[in-house]
Amino acid sequence: MTVSDDFLEYVLDQLSAWSGVTARRMFGGAGLYRDGRMFGLVADDVAYLKVDETNKDKFLAAGSSAFRPYPDKPTIMSYFEIPPDILEDPEALIRWAEESLSIQKKRK
Questions:
Q1: Which positions fall inside the TfoX N-terminal domain (predicted)?
Q2: What global pTM score does this model have?
């Protein structure tokens, strides 16, 4: 699992109108944070957002797949790939990211 500097910079640039977003490198990828909470991740130059029952269906409807940290194992995490059209539209991306952050804020 790796992430290029260029792709991570692109994702952060797309989120730049939403102040306070930071990235922290971890395990070869990067976590996306705001308000001290991880709402997304970037791995292998693919960006993902946190999902739960409140937003998972729209990711599935857009054809997104779940993040699998180990492609050869069945482990699935609650992060789904950001659809390309959403990633390319900063306003839409921020709306989707806000939903993912709210999931994390509900957790204690």
A1: 13-102
A2: 0.90
